Amino acid sequence: MILLTAKQKEQYTRELIEVFQKASEDKKLLDSFLIDVLTPREYEEMCLRWQIIKQLYRGIPQRKIAENLGVGIATITRGSRELRDKNGGFNQVLEKHYKRK
Predict the structure, then answer these.
(1) Most buried residue among 13, 43, 79, 88 by CB atoms closer than 10 A?
(2) What is the pLDDT of residues 2-44, one digit of tens each?
(3) Both 46 and 82 in a single domain?
(4) Any domain includes 3
């Protein structure tokens, strides 16, 4: 396993965020980039995690989400913990771009 220095991590993270930001202007390009940078399983898990977060945000009970998406409660609980951070990225994106239903 490769360990990055703090400086490398900061630089690489900043660069990746810039790439995402630029690629997001073209949905096909962003999809192609994600397909190339992630394994198929990682991409699927990322998409599924987002669905979990959206359903939690809408107030759907964890057991119902597990049933809807065919995932375990532990997977949903992790998302639920992340949503408790009102200043976290999930909440920032959801508040800015999604309405509770």
Answers:
(1) 79
(2) 889 999 999 999 999 999 999 999 999 999 999 999 999 999 9
(3) yes
(4) no
